[in-house]
Amino acid sequence: MASGPRDLGPVTAASFSGNRPAVVGVKYSAPAELSRMVDAGLEIWYVDQKEKRAFGQVGAESLPALQRLGAQLRMVQSPGTFNNFGPGYHTYDEIKEILAGMAAKHSDKARLVDIGDGWEKTQGKSDRDVLALQIGKGDRTGKPAVLLCGNHHAREIVTPEIVLKIAEMLLEGSDSDPDLAHFVENRDIWLIPMVNPDGHRLAAKGVDWRKNTDNSAGGGANYAKGPNGPGVDLNRNYGFKWGLPGASPSATAPTFRGPGPFSEPETQAIKRLVESRKWTFLMTYHSFSNLILWPWGHTNAPPPDNRLAPIGQKLGQLSGYKPQQSVKLYPTSGDTTDWAFGEHGILSYTTEIGSWGDGFDPPYAKLASFWKQNEPGARLLLQLADNPAHIFGPELTTVARKKDAIEVLASRGAVEVEAFAGQAGPDGTGLKVALSEGRGVLPATLKSANGLILLHAKDSKGTWGPIKAVFSR
Ligand code: 0X9
Ligand code: ZN
Fold first, then answer.
1. Is 76's pLDDT higher than 90?
2. Phi–psi pair at 350, nearest 5 degrees
3. What is the distance in A from the centroid of ligand 1 to the CA of 314?
């Protein structure tokens, strides 16, 4: 069964009431054809890859160009709610206050960092910054670094909320959950709920807004216009393979790449932060389509890193979303993950949260289920950050702290477990115990200053798995 929306007949000039864009579906034969339609002004929201139909939105002004490409556009039913910033969602000002509150309450493990300006601030038009919460205890220099961010696209209002949930999980949960305590102790975690604060302000007013609000390269000043207004698509502005197909050179296109690579202060802020240290993982949350995507987006060539796909598959398994290389959906250029991976070797993922029925602005009550889908994946990246190749090893399914022993249960194929005090050392250098049928008991003799014992299992080929934590007392 097609999971897309219901067909409502062909698109004609009359489909655009009051110059409003139309919600459409279109058949395609290959992803590259989709990127040509995107370049011509089609805004893709969802792709039914089985049926080879793409769904999204198109403005009346893009109709001629799309028709020249031979696109057979059909009207379809819109997603549930539309441009509705419902109660529960947080504005930029509220998020700023929440982050400041978190940093104040948890000053031993969190710090609020202004990593750069929104475009409007650079113009003296408003005062919004790109704000980050750095989480981690003590000196984080050299600790495995993970960057999780949301809201490159303004109207994807679920995404800042998910990043806030990650902050809350780490800060409120790390006293009682040993894995979270381990992450706060042994990782350098950067959370950026809102990469696009100016655009988010429009979305919070109920405008259908995707890009930032920079109109200096043209596009006029009609900020009520939605997708065919001015602004730069921040997810096409990164400086790796910038300018290839899959991004538009036109200032009013939904995927306008900007006048040059890193032309925008928001992408510059991410660039500066990324260049400031070595990162293992980057996750960028978008909505919607229930997908896990990884590079490349600009070419069909497979990415030259054998860890990227298996970790992506696992993220898919944990969330229930469909995992795939991003170009298989449709080609893009200048996106966050191609740059972070291509330029810096960071294992980078895009998560597209929610279904067509959810649209861009489901009721806030849906956050609970989105969080359920995405919490395990966020934990996985933090877990694997010291050694992503641990994805290839066996998992510890249970680690139980008993009175004077630690009991472990490992997944199939595990033959040995090792333990470290406080922080994990290189594979194979811990206190080792053989497993029998995946079960083992370690003496609880390890002393650790931070109260943590870290363990992982090995299979018969000598491959070590992901680290699990347990409190030492
Ligand atoms: O097009 C985008 O920027 C992302 N989708 S969204 O609907 N949130 O705008 C997805 C980018 C992933 N990359 C590729 N599909 N190549
Ligand atoms: Zn997006």
1. yes
2. -110, 130
3. 20
